[in-house]
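Methods, example record. To illustrate the input and output format used throughout this study, we show the complete record for soluble epoxide hydrolase. The sequence lines were provided to the predictor; the line carrying structure tokens was produced by it.
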Amino acid sequence: MEGIEHKMVNVNGINMHIAEKGEGQVVLFLHGFPELWYTWRHQILAFAALGYRAVAPDLRGFGDTDAPSSITSYTCLHVVGDMVALIGSLGVDQVFLVAHDWGAMVGWYLCMFRPDLIKAFASLTVPFRPRHPILKPIEGMLAFFGDDYYMCRFQEPGKMESEIAEYGAAAVIKKILTDSKPGPPILPKQNPFGNLRDIDDIKLPAWFSDEDLKYYASKYNHNGFTGGLNYYRVLDLNWELTAAWTGAQIKIPVKFIVGDLDMVYTTPGMKEYVHGGGFKNDVPLLKECVVIQGAGHFINQERAEEVNAHIHEFIKEFSTF
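The corresponding predicted structure is encoded as:
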């Protein structure tokens, strides 16, 4: 990771680790679960070379950033507050936003709450999801997908952590990042991640090396998974806190990029929303939806060059050099 600088910045009452490289207009990269700044290693180098300042934090609760102990410290208001303070610390008025998985959910909230800070948003894998006026998220997930749906299984504090501990961080991260099974992820109460011997036998793909896995595992072995899991545990609280934004549109230029095998994209109802007019209605400045054939959920790593080209093509429309 030649030339990538690492620093700690104090934002919104916590110490946040960021990785950055380059000079110019800021491109802010937000990772998902179970990931770290490191998921953007290819993008940091590529966009620095293209004349941008690439910045990728470890989000609250992840990696080397502080992880508050209270579950209620992980709401959308806290995490967006972190991003607003981070942008301010970078000495810029606006950033280009690129985000994946949970980072994309944070990104949608950031665009909703503080559109003045975002020039354009490239969302990877997770489209905008409007707030349901009546149905709480977990209640809806239980009804549609059952109590083994992964977000439902993450709700009880400590339970998933103890199940992960039985496998070890490396095995769980390996299983999640290499699993290309489409459709909503299910974690059975017995052997939620499958047989450990089968996980050992999984051959890592070309885009994710043993060194990459060791880096992820070292951070999660040291800091645990609780911080990341707490994002799921405040889904219903986020729903309560955002009642004032029911029906709100996102008024930022957006490009959506997803793999056709992605677990979110292949969840029932999602393709209809993305391509059937619902997404465009909620995000009027949606410029394009790119579906990458044969790609799974972790497309920024799996298809780095292709994804970089799509992102660059989009943000250069709004760049000033």
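Annotations derived from this record:
Residues 76-89 form the longest helix (14 residues).
The two ends are 26 Å apart (CA to CA).
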